[in-house]
Amino acid sequence: MTSKKLALVTLLTSGMIMSVSATEFNAVDESVETNLCIKAAEGNRVAMFNEMRNSGYSDKFIATKVTCNGENILAFVEKHGKNPEKMLNMLDRRTRLTSITDIAKNTLEEK
């Protein structure tokens, strides 16, 4: 490949990569939900954690009821987020409930 072709391919490839990562979100209003959506899309877990605490909403409410541009916050982050895997892990794990059953206690009560 000639150096001109190589330079052209490199330029086109870098331009496509830059356009994909150049997504920027602008808040239309200053509502709590909008701020949560912006922080979630930015992909900064610490900033999102702080925004969740400041919102006054429960973690479960945020993960299941907050919508961003008409879709659930989890789907929004998956499509548009900068760090979707880590952010989804953070948001989704907060909706799971864990219960512990004492097996030894239950078997003693049955006898």
Properties at a glance:
111 residues, mainly alpha, two-stranded antiparallel ribbon, 4% strand, signal, DUF3718
Proportion of strand residues: under 5%
SSE order, as H and E?
A: HHHHEEHHH
Give the strand tally: 2
- Structural classification: mainly alpha
User: What spatial order of strands do you see in the largest sheet?
Assistant: 1-2
Signal peptide: 1-22
Protein name: DUF3718 domain-containing protein
Pfam family, one: DUF3718
Keywords: Signal
Provide an overview of this structure.
The chain has 111 residues and is mainly α. The protein is 67% helix and 4% strand. Strand 1 and strand 2 (71-72) form a beta hairpin. The termini are far apart.
Give a summary of the structure in a few sentences:
With 111 residues, this protein is mainly α.
Layout of secondary structure:
Layout: H1 3-21, H2 32-42, H3 45-55, H4 59-65, E1 67-68, E2 71-72, H5 73-80, H6 84-93, H7 103-110
Antiparallel strand pairs: 1-2
